[in-house]
Structures are given as structure tokens and as C-alpha cells.
């Protein structure tokens, strides 16, 4: 009996030793701490919180009569007589940045990019989707007013030079609310085609939830694009005194015609637009090597958008746009033979000193959108023998967003209200001056400059606002007077909404 018990114990001991030894080998081969950091649920940032705030920002930029559900409560009604100088209703829309002018060109681009964010990643937004739709609708309601008359678009409300001579709350505005328009005699194909793109893209956002509104948007987009194409010319020719140097059209209008046609092709599926792109693509600069994407230059955006039609919808005639899009990707991704992009020592994409973050957010969005299209088509990008996968594109985009949110040498979040350290003195009139609730009396035109030049932090936190960002050396002074680095704008935030929705979903936060 004793011998059988002994042999059984020995067997158990040997088995235990074998399993323990095997387990140790496994642990050494696959260390647990390394595995944890590879886990797709590991995130250094709360992307969901950042997403909520990035959309909330738009409520702080609203012009017009604010709705009962307005969440940015330090703002009040403003610009309620906008348009009256020409007997038209132009109340509403957005102030583009830290001033009190309504510029139609960047407002339309903002609308297009907010819409594209929702089209590609809205399905991942959960509870924020309705807020994103409302942000788009605040813009499209205004753009419908601005395009109500055939062959006419009201493209600006407010005299920018006189507005910039004051530092006052939008609620106190007493600068001239001059209205500027384009028409057959003063064409503006750039702003008109961007407006058509905005209306067409937004129609896709509302197609299921409000089909009547979506049809109105797409009908207007068709009419506005016809006007843009028929009466050609840059809007900053006829309106140079009023729109330059603020939103001069430096890249011409060809890029907007291609971009507008691409959005109408997507929204209507009418072969007429595909034909237009095929016939006019090269003359409109489809193969240009300019790799900047922002409120002025749409070439890269059009390439990525049209590549989707080829990759996902299998529109063979748009085959070349995959090549054009790939060239853009190769110019961006570090470490391949065609890389041309400049990055700061801390890793931020750097295009220019004035409001650089707009290029960071727009580029990150394009990388994520293109990664989605490539994944659908089981394709990669080939950069002179170096293969760039969709996951590489996503990693590059994530790194840029993470830098923006605080993974940078200064440990500074460039989104106001996100994280423990963020800009406190942003170049923004409404944020920097005491609110109506705190100071009911009017603040006169020049009285606000003493606050603008002071070191005191802004009393009203414009939650979600993303500022122009650091310089080429990752430095950021946080000075209100430094509009290049400290001013937020709607077109910085608009593409970021889509990127944050994707990242929040990827890391299980939505």
C-alpha cells in the first residue's frame, strides 16, 4: 500500500514540476507586462471625453438666437440683425475663430469636415451623434439662408478690419455688420463650390433621420455647384479688400470645383458628376503634388474621397485617384523614400507657424479615413518598395491626436478643458472677457484690450477649443495676443471630431 502511495505522490510531484516549468517558459517567452501594453483596450487618453468636448466647442462659437438646450451658458444671443443691411436674413451660423465676423469660406469647409466625420465615424459616436448632427445643422441652416437667392451667395457678415480694431464680446458688437456677396458679376467659384460640398456632404448625414431636410440640402447643393462652375473666378478678386488677408483664396478655385463635384457624386450618384470629374480632373489639378489640406486647399481631400469611390464602390474610372492618394500618404509617413513632411522634435506634424494644428487634425482624419477604405478593399500603400499598411496609418494618426491631447514635451493639452494642463489665455473675445451674467454692462469697443494684453486667465472656459498649437520647437507661450498659436477655430475642431470618434471606439470607450 505504502509503495503505491509513494509512486502516486512522485507522479503528482513530477507532473506539478512539469507544468510549473512549462508555465515559466511561457511567461518568459510572453511577458505579461508586455502583453498588457499591446492590448487594444490600452489607451493613454480618454478619447470619449475629448470627443464630447470637441463637439461642445461649436456651441461656444454660435451666432444668432441660442436655443433653450444651449450648454455653453456664458454665451448669449448675438448678431440678431445680421443681413438687415441688404434686407436678407443672415442670422445664425458660426464665428469662425476668436473674432466676431462670419466668414462663409471657412464656415462651409467646417461644415463639410464635420459632415465627413459623421459619415465615416458617426456610427461609432453613440450618444454624441445627436450633438454632432446639431453642430452640422446650425451651420447648414445658415448656409441655406446664404444661398436662398439663385446665382448669389452671401459669403461674409461683418467688416473684418473694423472688427479687429475692437476687443468686445459678440453680444456687445457695435462694429458694422456689412454683408458681402458673390454673384454673376463678382464670381467666387472657390467659396461657392465649398458651399456646395458642405450642403452635399450634410445631406448624407440627414438622409435617414430627416429625409426632407436632406433632399432640400442636396437640391441646393446642385444649384450652388452649377453657379460655381458656370461663373468662374476666385472670390478674393472681387472681394479682396474685405476677405484678404483673412481668408484669401491662395490655392485658386480649381481644387474646390473638383472637391464639390466629388461630394455631389457621392451624394447624388448621378453619373453627370462622375463624367465631370473624368473630363475636368486633370485641368482642375487632380494630380498636383501640393500636400496641404485645409480651408483653402482641397486637392488632397478630393484625392482621398475619390479613391474611396474606386476602392470601395469599385468605380474603375477613378483608378488614378488611388495613386494620387498613395503619393500623398508616402509624402507624410516618416521613414519611406518619398517622405517630405516636417515634424517637431516631439513628433508633431508641422506645416506652418500660423494655426498649425488645423493641418494636424485634417491630416489625422484623412489618414484614418484612408485606412478605412484600404481595409475595406484589402489594399496597402507602396512607397518605393516600403509597404505602408492601414494599421500604420492609424498609428501615425493616433500619435498626432495623442500629442494634441498632452503627449508632448510640455505635457500640455492643446484642447481647452481637457486634461490637467491646457491653454488658459486663448485668443478669443468671448472667452477672455467677463460674461453677460458676470458683467451685464456693455464693454465698449476698445475697453477690452486691457484684458486682451493682460496675463490673467480667461474667465470663461471655451471647453473643447483646440488652439493653433506649439511652434516648430514644441514651444507654446500661452499668450492671448499670439493669435497664430493661441486662437481656436471651427476648422481645427471639425476633422478632429471624426478622429476622436474612431479612437474612442477602438479603445472601448464608446
Give an account of the 3D structure.
Belongs to the glycosyl hydrolase 9 (cellulase E) family. Keywords: Carbohydrate metabolism, Cellulose degradation, Glycosidase, Hydrolase, Polysaccharide degradation, Signal. Residues 47-499 form the Glycoside hydrolase family domain. It catalyses: Endohydrolysis of (1->4)-beta-D-glucosidic linkages in cellulose, lichenin and cereal beta-D-glucans. One of its GO terms (molecular function) is cellulase activity. The model is unreliable at 1-40 (pLDDT under 50). The radius of gyration is 26 Å and the shape is globular. The strands form 2 sheets. Strands 1-2-3 form a 3-stranded antiparallel sheet. It has a two-stranded antiparallel sheet with strand order 4-5. The chain has helices at residues 2-29, 32-38, 47-60, 104-121, 129-146, 160-164, 189-205, 211-230, 235-238, 240-243, 254-268, 271-280, 299-311, 319-332, 357-377, 390-405, 429-432, 449-452, 483-486, 490-506; strands spanning 102-103, 152-157, 179-183, 381-383, 386-388. The longest helix is centred in the first third of the chain and has 28 residues, at 2-29. 50% of the residues lie in helices and 4% in strands. It has one domain (47-506): Alpha/alpha barrel (Glycosyltransferase). With 510 residues, the chain is mainly alpha-helical. The termini are far apart.
Amino acid at each position: 500500500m505504502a509503495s503505491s502511495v509513494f509512486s502516486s505522490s512522485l507522479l503528482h510531484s513530477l507532473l506539478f514540476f512539469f507544468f510549473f516549468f512549462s508555465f515559466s517558459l511561457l511567461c518568459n517567452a510572453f511577458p505579461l507586462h508586455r502583453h498588457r501594453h499591446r492590448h487594444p483596450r490600452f489607451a493613454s487618453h480618454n478619447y470619449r471625453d475629448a470627443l464630447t468636448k470637441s463637439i461642445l466647442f461649436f456651441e461656444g462659437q454660435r451666432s444668432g438666437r441660442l436655443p433653450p438646450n444651449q450648454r455653453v451658458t456664458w454665451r448669449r444671443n448675438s448678431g440678431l440683425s445680421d443681413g438687415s443691411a441688404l434686407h436678407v436674413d443672415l442670422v445664425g451660423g458660426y464665428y469662425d475663430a476668436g473674432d466676431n465676423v462670419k466668414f462663409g469660406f471657412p464656415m462651409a469647409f467646417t461644415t463639410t469636415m464635420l459632415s465627413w466625420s459623421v459619415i465615416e465615424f458617426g456610427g461609432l459616436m453613440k450618444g454624441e451623434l445627436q450633438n454632432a448632427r446639431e453642430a452640422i445643422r446650425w451651420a447648414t441652416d445658415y448656409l441655406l439662408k446664404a444661398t436662398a437667392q439663385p446665382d448669389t451667395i452671401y459669403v461674409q457678415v461683418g467688416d473684418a478690419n473694423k472688427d479687429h480694431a475692437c476687443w468686445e464680446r459678440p453680444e456687445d458688437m457695435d462694429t458694422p455688420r456689412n454683408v458681402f456677396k458673390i454673384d454673376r458679376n463678382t464670381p467666387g467659384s472657390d467659396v461657392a463650390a465649398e458651399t456646395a460640398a458642405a450642403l452635399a456632404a450634410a445631406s448624407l448625414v440627414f438622409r435617414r433621420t430627416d429625409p426632407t431636410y436632406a433632399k432640400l440640402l442636396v437640391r441646393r447643393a446642385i444649384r450652388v455647384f452649377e453657379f460655381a462652375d458656370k461663373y468662374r473666378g476666385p472670390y478674393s478678386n472681387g472681394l479682396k479688400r474685405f476677405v484678404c488677408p483673412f481668408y484669401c483664396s491662395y490655392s485658386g478655385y480649381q481644387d474646390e470645383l473638383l472637391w464639390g463635384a466629388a461630394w455631389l457624386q457621392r451624394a447624388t450618384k448621378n453619373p453627370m458628376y462622375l463624367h465631370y470629374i473624368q473630363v475636368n480632373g486633370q485641368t482642375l489639378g487632380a494630380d498636383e503634388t501640393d500636400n496641404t489640406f485645409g480651408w483653402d486647399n482641397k486637392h488632397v481631400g478630393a484625392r482621398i474621397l475619390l479613391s474611396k469611390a474606386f476602392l470601395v464602390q469599385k468605380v474603375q474610372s477613378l483608378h488614378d485617384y488611388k495613386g494620387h492618394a498613395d503619393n500623398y500618404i508616402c509624402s507624410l509617413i516618416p521613414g519611406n523614400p518619398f517622405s517630405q513632411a516636417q515634424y517637431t522634435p516631439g513628433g508633431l506634424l508641422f506645416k506652418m507657424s500660423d494655426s498649425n494644428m488645423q493641418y494636424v487634425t485634417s491630416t489625422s482624419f484623412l489618414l484614418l479615413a484612408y485606412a478605412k477604405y484600404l481595409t475595406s478593399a484589402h489594399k496597402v500603400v507602396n512607397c518605393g518598395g516600403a509597404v505602408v499598411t492601414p494599421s500604420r496609418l492609424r498609428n501615425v494618426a493616433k500619435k498626432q491626436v495623442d500629442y494634441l491631447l498632452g503627449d508632448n514635451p510640455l505635457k500640455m493639452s492643446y484642447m481647452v478643458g481637457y486634461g490637467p494642463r491646457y491653454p488658459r489665455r486663448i485668443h478669443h473675445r468671448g472667452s477672455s472677457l467677463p460674461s453677460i451674467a458676470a458683467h451685464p454692462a456693455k464693454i465698449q469697443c476698445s475697453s477690452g484690450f486691457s484684458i486682451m494684453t493682460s496675463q490673467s486667465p480667461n474667465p470663461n472656459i471655451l471647453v473643447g477649443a483646440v488652439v493653433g498649437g506649439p511652434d516648430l520647437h514644441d514651444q507654446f507661450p500661452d499668450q492671448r495676443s499670439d493669435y497664430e498659436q493661441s486662437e481656436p477655430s471651427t476648422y481645427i475642431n471639425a476633422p478632429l471630431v471624426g478622429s476622436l470618434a474612431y479612437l474612442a471606439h477602438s479603445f472601448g470607450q464608446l
